[in-house]
Design goal:
Double-stranded beta-helix, 3-stranded antiparallel sheet, binds manganese (II) ion, binds N-oxalylglycine, alpha+beta
Length: about 280
């Protein structure tokens, strides 16, 4: 059995995985080590991977069903891949701390990102461990949040998309297709049993059962809590780098510090209903 080399990025989050070629058939043992590292580190970075869109999809399919989420563009011939093509990242959405597609009743369990074109400098992606964020809250705050639900509403993000070029018809269709959904504010990871804070700064979350004034006070605190660097790691991309994150217990944020074209392919793996 070949042992993969696992180099943690920080004590709390992320690891570089060496000793595997994502484009070649993978033994069960190798995949098992990747699954375990994913559970332990939540964000995995694979460098030196020269893979095709097909191989990217095949790697994603090892974890579950893959799809391109609502309102996303996809590259020609690959409707299951999400295309991120940005030259003006500020305000696009990915530049805010978020997790992916929580407007779904069953949000994705993972996203796997691969660059096709990068700016000369900048365009890193930051990640935060939301289990560590939860554990850093006081017991009193944790017990307040336990049992609360948040409403995740896509309409704000859809308005941004409307400003950035989706058609009014698509806007109306998507608005109807994705009404607000409720998820627990504290979710338990089905694999590790660890609790994490499950909110999304991108699809306006509202704490159900709290008054407007209480939401105004508490939500900004909870959404900003993710910004503490001790919960985080940061990925510096190279063209042969593939990174995946556990969308159930992390948040991420694309650093909007570039003004050259940046193109990424994302493979999104289906998840289950948060509990
Ligand atoms: C994403 C995302 C950030 C980035 O792919 O879901 O938010 O840096 N990406 O591209
Ligand atoms: Mn994202």
């Amino acid at each position: 059995m070949t042992e993969l080399e696992i180099r943690p990025l920080t004590p709390v989050l992320g690891a570089e995985i060496h000793g595997v070629d994502l484009g070649s058939p993978m033994s069960d043992s190798t995949f098992g080590q990747i699954e375990k590292a994913f559970l332990d580190h939540m964000v995995l970075v694979f460098r030196g991977q020269d893979i095709t869109p097909e191989q990217h999809l095949d790697f994603g399919r090892k974890f579950g069903e893959v799809y391109c989420p609502a309102m996303s563009a996809f590259p020609p011939d690959y409707p299951e891949i999400m295309l991120l093509d940005t030259t003006t990242p500020k305000g696009a959405g990915a530049d805010r701390w978020h997790c992916d597609a929580t407007f779904m009743t069953e949000p994705p369990m993972a996203s796997i990102l691969r660059p096709l074109r990068l700016p000369g400098e900048g365009g890193d992606t930051c990640f935060a461990n939301m289990a560590a964020a939860y554990e850093a809250l006081s017991p009193a705050m944790r017990s307040l949040l336990e049992g609360l639900e948040a409403e995740h509403d896509l309409s704000g993000q859809l308005r941004v998309s409307l400003d950035r070029g989706i058609s009014p018809d698509d806007y109306e269709t998507l608005l109807k297709r994705w009404p607000p959904v409720r998820h627990p504010v504290v979710r338990t990871h089905p694999g590790s049993g660890r609790k994490s804070l499950f909110l999304n700064g991108n699809t306006g979350s509202l704490l159900v059962g709290l008054s407007d004034a209480e939401n105004d006070l508490l939500l900004p605190f909870l959404l900003d809590h993710v910004r503490a660097p001790e919960f985080q790691c940061r990925i510096r991309w190279e063209l042969d780098c593939v990174a995946m994150w556990d969308n159930r217990c992390t948040q991420h944020c694309g650093v909007p510090d570039f003004d050259e074209r940046r193109i990424m392919h994302r493979v999104t793996v289906a998840g289950d209903k948060p509990r």
